[in-house]
């Protein structure tokens, strides 16, 4: 969890340091990111094989840096990292994904508040390992596979400037996520969903 610790230290540094007005004008930089956490449980019907309910835990952090091409318009790079764990009585898997891609955001400020639409597109690299039931051998085996990911995200957010260079924000967004494995141990992923994330941005 070194990434999380480094992110928290960076947040504390900026909150204690900056005391000017928020800079949404052309020529300034924006540094920050969002954190999201999700935990779910899917109850399965108890007919057929005795498989327990499916549990999933997902954590993601999205550091980014952007440059204001014009007043209120920022173009940047986002470098998401995510960790997920899926389990039931037949499998127990952990997955890590590192991604990178462009991000575009436009602010509509009003006093200390601002709303913004944003879009991003990332490509990434995934590693998944753990136990999985193999129909070929008829039992649970240990497997590891690598894959490639792509994700489109678009949403609408709101920001509140807690001091002149630091803003708390929340974003409600839609994402289209695909994961294609190089090996056939695990099932490819293709999902669309609505999500919420929260974080901080620092304006330099």
TrEMBL record:
Protein name (Swiss-Prot/TrEMBL): Outer membrane protein beta-barrel domain-containing protein
InterPro entries named in the record: Autotransporte_beta_dom_sf, Beta-barrel_OMP, OMP/PagP_B-barrel
Protein origin, superkingdom: Bacteria
Organism from which the protein derives: Fulvivirga imtechensis AK7
All copies of domain Outer membrane protein beta-barrel, residue ranges: 9-202
Keyword field: Signal
Taxonomic placement: Bacteria, Pseudomonadati, Bacteroidota, Cytophagia, Cytophagales
């Amino acid at each position: 969890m070194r990434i999380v610790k480094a992110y928290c230290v960076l947040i504390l540094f900026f909150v204690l340091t900056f005391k000017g007005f928020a800079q949404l004008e052309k020529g300034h930089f924006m540094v920050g990111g969002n954190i999201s956490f999700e935990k779910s449980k899917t109850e399965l019907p108890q007919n057929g094989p005795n498989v327990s309910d499916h549990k999933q835990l997902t954590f993601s952090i999205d550091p980014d840096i952007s440059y204001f091409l014009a007043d209120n318009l920022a173009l940047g790079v986002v470098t998401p990292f995510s960790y997920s764990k899926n389990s039931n009585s037949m499998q127990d898997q952990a997955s890590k994904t590192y991604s990178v891609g462009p991000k575009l955001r436009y602010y509509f400020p009003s006093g200390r508040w601002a709303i913004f639409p944003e879009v991003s597109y990332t490509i990434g690299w995934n590693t998944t390992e753990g136990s999985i039931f193999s129909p070929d051998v008829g039992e649970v085996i240990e497997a590891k596979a690598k894959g490639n990911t792509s994700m489109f995200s678009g949403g609408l957010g709101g920001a509140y400037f807690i001091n002149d260079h630091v803003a708390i924000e929340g974003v409600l967004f839609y994402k289209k996520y695909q994961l294609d494995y190089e090996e056939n141990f695990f099932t490819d992923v293709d999902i669309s969903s609505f999500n919420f994330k929260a974080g901080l941005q620092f304006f330099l």
